[in-house]
Amino acid sequence: xxxxxxxxxxxxxxxxxxxxxxxxxxxxxxxxxxxxxxxxxxxxxxxxxxxxxxxxxxxxxxxxxxxxxxxxxxxxxxxxxxxxxxxxxxxxxxxxxxxxxxxxxxxxxxxxxxxxxxxxxxxxxxxxxxxxxxxxxxxxxxxxxxxxxxxxxxxxxxxxxxxxxxxxxxxxxxxxxxxxxxxxxxxxxxxxxxxxxxxxxxxxxxxxxxxxxxxxxxxxxxxxxxxxx
Length: 229
What we know:
Arc Repressor Mutant, subunit A; three-stranded antiparallel sheet; 7% strand; elongated
């Protein structure tokens, strides 16, 4: 399956760790929407997307139906699927909820990070930086998602982990492509490694401040919009 790059090229990679082709296609399409590769208001056909991603039309159609349930797209009879747009108010609401959840939980995460979990997070952080260097937006989003899900999962609350994952997936990060082209995406990528260093030495205050800034980037610069003050 092909991953769309910021420079318009493509590379053969394993987009996501999933148990089925349908799941892989679903996550790849979702990442393409989040990254702005599939644009809001535009209607996409299953055959057209299948050709673009190098798979058959059936798993693409099934994947798009899954994304209908997630609120990413809407079906249009005999035409395809239209990507739904997130308003500034929607993005503000998501950012506020994430700030309320992810920043305070840092103090609970730090003492629960085992050596094994640190290693998994370090691998994801390296993948994030590698994708940023390559300008590979979809791989960047995949690794970024794995990092933050693994981080919040340390608390051991499956419902909280699912909620944070859903909130992150609902954001629309249209500014990432421009950041990748300018080289500034690497600065955001390195924040993950920095966060791990802070957590390792139990510098909770610094980790909370960095997480707060990281969420601010997602809402503002990454989304290509201004953050509401």
